Amino acid sequence: MADCSGFGSIDFLVKLTGLSDAGLRLVLALFSAYPLAFIYHAFFYRKNPVLQHAYFMFCGLSIAAFCYGWCFAHSLIAIVSSYLLLHIIGPSIVMVVLVFLFNMGYLLTSYAYYASGDYDVNWTTPQCILTLRLISVAWDYYDGNQDQEKLTPDFKATAIKTPPTLLQLCGLSYFYGGFLVGPQFQIKGFVSFVEGTLMDKKDDNNSRVSEGLKRMFLGIMYLALFAVLEPYVSIQTILSEEFKRHSFLAKAWYIIFFSKIALMKYLAVWCLSEGSCIISGIGYNGKTADGKVRWDGVRNVKLSVYETAYNFQHMIDSFNINTNKWVFRYVFKRLRFLGNKNLSHLLALMFLAVWHGLFLGYFVCFFGEFLVMLMEKQISNMCYAVTKRPLMEMPAPIKISVLAFYVPIVLFGMGYFNVAFNLLTFSRFHEVWLSLYYIIPLVLLVWHVFYPTLIYPIFKRMTREEKEERSKKVN
User: Fold this and answer.
1) Region of poorest pLDDT, from 134-138, 144-148, 383-387
2) Which of 355, 419, 459, 469 is 20 to 30 A from residue 238's alpha carbon, by CA?
3) How far apart are CA 104 and CA 124, in angstroms?
4) How many CB atoms lie within 10 A of CB 309?
5) Of residues 53, 74, 345, 356, which has the active-site annotation?
6) Distance CA 181, CA 225 (A)
7) Closest Cα partner for 110 from 63, 77, 136?
8) Distance CA 28, CA 32 (A)
9) Contacts of 404 (CB under 8 A, 6+ apart)
């Protein structure tokens, strides 16, 4: 297997921090984006676009070499190959399919070759980000050459008429703020940022610095919390015999905390990455109604929503936002020819699973998410049909009682499937699920068997009879 260790020795820092070499290099690279952002604004911002793209390319390649050594060549292969497909074949569906198959095939082959059985931090981490970025360029180029009158507004907003130059594609791909862990952004918006048309000069104030540093400090906070708490709720702990001896309720709460803490590492790296993007200026997202500049254009997590979520939809909507938007635009909406939203939703989630890797745990997690979301939507629709108003508009005693009962269920449900996501292989997450009596799969199985055959027909008949009674009273 090829050596993908980064250039230069950081053994002293590895011993000092206790982190793995690959993990520490990733964190250092994320922090390096901040001085690079300040250098960019001092010397390149709103200057010649060629110089800007060259700077981004140099920075990204340097980061890739520091983190992954000679394996940075994999990203170059993907970028150059995609560039050739864009320019040789042109804006056809054949080009889109070939760009998709090449990049996904390259990524999945790499997953299979480098898989160790655990979550790996190596060059495939930024490669999965790059894969989506290059596929989106292909789709946007295709959209830009279709009948614009027939395109939906969101497709129009990202469509490009001409393909990017190789330097533009490298600048997009190696931008220091989004190369390693995202966020995703489209070529059209990125080019407008480089050309200085993303925002008016009068809105280009130093508020971006303070907003970017806020996200950086949030990232540091989550990183510190993860480092302190993770040893107490590690994978080894939930696979231990001691864990199995606990009561069901104790294990359920442990799974909740395990999930929350395991996800902190994602919150940390996304906040760190977003902060450097904001300072660079690409986080611009217009202005609020009162004229305040918004810098949340590349936000990947809504922390206020995520940390106070009281249903599954909130958890999904607030987490990994830009990747979810990408999948919605380039997978879900492209499957509209199927004529079935649930099927399109399921296939989009299966795409997300295979994009994460080839382990069964990813597929189980996203399939479970689909079933849970479908169940929640069905229950929510039934409740609304009875109460005629959403939960948040209910009287305080009812609202508090429902939330006190439902929020732990939501957290446990998310944690339950996050066990599969983090443990990856069936032999490992089966042990944990078995100790919890497979409670969530059993509930989902019972619901999805009896809802269409028994629950929904009865509910439909009851609501119809209620409507008929009201109609008689009116008459």
Assistant:
1) 383-387
2) 355
3) 12
4) 20
5) 356
6) 20
7) 77
8) 6
9) none
Q: What is the pLDDT of residue 5?
A: 83
Report the mean per-residue pLDDT for the chain. 92
Residue 1 has pLDDT above 60, yes or no: no
Q: Full-prediction pTM beyond 0.85?
A: yes
Q: What is the pLDDT of residues 14-70, one digit of tens each?
A: 888 888 898 999 999 999 999 999 999 999 999 999 999 999 999 999 999 999 999
Residue 246 is a catalytic residue: no
Q: Is residue 122 predicted with pLDDT exceeding 70? A: yes
Contacts of 263 (CB under 8 A, 6+ apart): 319, 418
Residue type for 135, please?
A: I
Pick the catalytic residue from 103, 300, 311, 320: 320
Q: Are the C-beta atoms of residues 30 and 273 closer than 8 Å to each other?
A: yes
Dist. CA 215–CA 225, nearest whole Å: 15
